[in-house]
Amino acid sequence: MDKITIREATWEDAAVIAEFQVLMAKETEGYTLDHNIIARGVSAVFEDPSKGRYFIAGEAGKPVASLLITPEWGDWRNSYVWWF
Predict the structure, then answer these.
(1) Is a pLDDT exceeding 70 seen at residue 52?
(2) Do the beta carbons of residue 52 and residue 71 sit within 8 Å?
(3) 78: alpha, beta or left, given left = phi > 0 and alpha = psi -120 to 50?
């Protein structure tokens, strides 16, 4: 087994991130997402970093997973909360 690496995602990762999202929804919820909407949503994060940050987990140089950290204002705490 190769070492898993974690790095911040770049625009070049947008297609694989969108594909991971489509696959995850199908596997976990049995839900089929519209790939075009997902691709636009992923692109929106890269266009406006205030929406969140993507990270890529890789093995042997190949992306195997992604993570989106997105902030939300939490009035309960009077601070931002990160959703993983």
Answers:
(1) yes
(2) yes
(3) left
- Average pLDDT over all residues of the chain: 93
Distances 67 to 29, 43, 83 between C-alpha atoms, Å: 18, 14, 10
Cβ(44)–Cβ(51) under 8 Å? Answer: yes
With cut-offs at 50, 70 and 90, classify the pLDDT of residue 76: confident
Cα 28 to Cα 18, 32, 35, 72: the distances in Å are 15, 11, 17, 24
Q: Position of tokens 């694989």?
A: 16
